[in-house]
Amino acid sequence: MDGTSERKVMEASLALSGRLPVREGIRILGPSPAPLLRIRNRYRWHLLVLARNHALLASALSAARGMDAAGIRVTTRIDPVQLL
Q: Is the dihedral of CA 36, 41, 42, 43 positive or negative?
């Protein structure tokens, strides 16, 4: 996720990680600052969701839908090639 205020991005990341389900077969890593914290004046934080199978991943990500924070953009990538 990213936004123009680092504090708001961090708070939204923490809120999102709290909304994700905790169950067997799902691991949540983060949230943490992205390796390149700021790009084009937008601060970025990562949250990785690891799941045993696609169905578990889909159910975990459905909990993140509707996450609405002013000025914060949430982006999901399944099987990302890189994390920068």
A: positive
